[in-house]
């Protein structure tokens, strides 16, 4: 900082601040978030499982109200699991510690795994998920867990932002050098003015949120795909539906 009097430099003030405590605190916060979200995951999964068992056991006939309550417990558990998963992944992203477990992977297996994970949510909204897999898909070098997580995130959004009884398509196809995964819905779509910010952390399209969300899923998805050398993209038109996808180089 220069202090001048009549354009003359008469002194200089240099401020030095030690930001180590700030970094330490930030790291402690990130670790705390990771630990808490990890610890929350198991009991929430078990609540969800118990509610589902209760529904399946049919201890006497369940009336509509009881069925509705069970549905509400599973729905809310799903939402909590999504948030804890996002927080856990966010802590990896924030510390720059995305640890990839790259291995040869089958695109078809990744798609199947993702569809399986969201099948109950889709059923509840009578949404039909159709998978389209190209013949002779090559093996890719990928972190299966993180790649499936991204696809599950796309599918969860597609289900969440689509009307009941609509269709969602998930596909994997390839060109000579790339494999492309895509989730296409017939939902509300996104205004093009928001598309450039859609992968930003905490961004949610204004005014469209009747249900809570963190605005974290797509930003983490972007980090996961780019960490693997892939490219993430979106095409959407308001009122006409959305397509979210990512592309990997074929090995
Ligand atoms: P959230 O947890 O809020 O869904 P995301 O990062 O997954 O966070 O998505 C960010 C925002 O992008 C959402 O809040 C929603 O407004 C919009 N969005 C994402 N996917 C879709 C989709 N398939 N159709 C319409 N809007 C979407």
Q: Order of helices and strands, N to C? A: EEHHEHEEHEEHEE
Tell me about the largest β-sheet.
5 strands, mixed
Oligomer: single chain
Overall SS class: alpha+beta
In angstroms, what is the radius of gyration?
23 Å
- Unreliable spans are none
The mean pLDDT is 89
Inertia-based shape: globular
Q: Tell me which ligands are bound.
A: adenosine-5'-diphosphate
Number of helices: 5
Strand content: 15-25%
Number of strands: 9
Query: Terminal Cα separation, in Å?
Result: 54 Å
Residue share in helices? 40-55%
Spatial sequence of strands, sheet with the most strands: 4-6-7-9-8
Any overview of this molecule?
The protein has 251 residues and is an alpha+beta fold. Helices cover 46% and strands 21% of the residues. The protein has 5 helices and 9 strands. The protein has a 5-stranded mixed sheet with strand order 4-6-7-9-8. Strands 1-2 form a two-stranded antiparallel sheet. Strands 3-5 form a two-stranded antiparallel ribbon. Helix 3 runs parallel beside helix 4 (144-160). The longest helix is centred in the first third of the chain and has 38 residues, at 20-57. The mean pLDDT is 89. Adenosine-5'-diphosphate (ADP) binds next to helix 4 and helix 5.
